[in-house]
Structure to design on (214 residues):
């Protein structure tokens, strides 16, 4: 381009030559700016795709680790609160990792003789989803059912947290800030189910993974 301009300037007036040179510089700058924007956009897309891929990989790993318990029942206990008047106080807790597929795990959760609850952990495009399926003895849905939420951005292959979704807020307005956490603690061979509200502990239960029930 510079060689062509030099030849052009020999055959035209100085003003015309300067105009052509300025136009050439502007065009070069615009081309460079477009190239830099394109690189920035590509980098942003790559970063976003990487984050999504990493989250999906971690979520799938958690689902796989949980699936390793499939077909087994585990006994648990209420750890918090210690209030003897709590609905779950003194009652036997049992989680049954019953149905497992590549996209969903169903865990019936019984409290004493009450077998109305099932935890549903489902793979989604953005990670995992936890729902609490409550049903009457005849199998019909309870009026308060399918509350829960989608996994956040800070989960691991052993621990996932689920902030309350819009449906939960509609069903239980006070539960808008609920966060459920499921964790497999390898060191202590314990499965944890935790619930916080307004950043404070509301409920937690632990299940002994070292002694599956027969």
């Amino acid at each position: 381009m510079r060689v062509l301009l030099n030849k052009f300037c020999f055959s035209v007036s100085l003003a015309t030559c300067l105009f052509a040179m300025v136009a050439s510089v502007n065009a070069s700058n615009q081309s460079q700016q477009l190239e830099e924007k394109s690189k920035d956009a590509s980098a942003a897309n790559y970063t976003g795709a990487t984050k999504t891929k990493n989250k999906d990989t971690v979520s799938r790993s958690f689902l796989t680790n949980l699936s390793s318990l499939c077909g087994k029942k585990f006994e648990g206990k209420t750890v918090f609160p210690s209030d003897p008047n709590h609905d779950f106080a003194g009652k036997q807790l049992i989680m049954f990792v019953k149905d497992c597929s590549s996209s969903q795990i169903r865990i019936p959760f019984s409290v004493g003789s009450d077998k109305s609850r099932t935890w549903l952990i489902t793979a989604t495009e953005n990670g995992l989803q936890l729902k609490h399926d409550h049903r009457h003895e005849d199998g019909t849905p309870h009026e308060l059912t399918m509350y829960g939420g989608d996994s956040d951005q800070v989960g691991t292959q052993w621990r996932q947290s689920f902030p309350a979704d819009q449906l939960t807020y509609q069903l239980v307005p006070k539960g808008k800030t609920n966060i459920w956490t499921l964790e497999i603690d390898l060191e202590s061979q314990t499965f944890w189910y935790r619930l916080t509200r307004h950043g404070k502990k509301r409920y937690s239960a632990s299940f002994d993974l070292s002694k599956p029930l027969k």
Notes: Residues 1-214 form one domain. The chain has a mean pLDDT of 83.
